[in-house]
Amino acid sequence: MTAQRIRPVGYGIWLIVFSVVGWWAAFQLTVEKFFLLENPSEQTSCYVSVILQCDKNLGSWQGEVFGFPNPVIGLTGWMAVLVVGVAVISGARFPRWFWGLFGLGMLGAIAFICWLIGQSIYHLAVLCPWCMVTWAVTIPAFIATAVHLLRNGTITRSAVVKRRANRLMAWVPLITILAYAVVIAMAQLAGLDFLGEIAGLIR
Length: 203
Fold this sequence. Notes:
Layout: H1 9-38, H2 55-59, H3 71-89, H4 96-124, H5 129-151, H6 159-168, H7 172-189, H8 194-202
């Protein structure tokens, strides 16, 4: 018996969009990493200022926690999310254990991203443009997945929870915006004038 009783097309489309954007960000970071390896004295194309840059992140130990560049994780991980998204809108029905493993993968992704956000803001004192794109899609992908696992019976069999989770899915964009606001506030409180940098770029 499968955990999924409905065909969540909207959720599948979200997964596809998030994965494409996330994969592209990981690809760009990989290209920039290769550039730095070949030109260690040069600046990458995503270097905007002392605060907005990829160079410091890519050159730090935090940028290769597992012994290889973090973007490699994104290149592989987002492809898995893309496959699931395509399968979902195609009408595929996965068993409960599959959704459980997928949920654990997304939990690991958001935990890693939260750690990287903290390292970037409080230790490296920089905001990497392509990293922020990754943060921007990982956060809603995790939130949407958590809500979906509640409504499709993976986390609980309670009919009440399923109904409430189904209604909660419409609030995922707002929850995501609030999460973005928290990250921006963290950067501002840490002394990284993120909003000022963005305003400067617009002008």
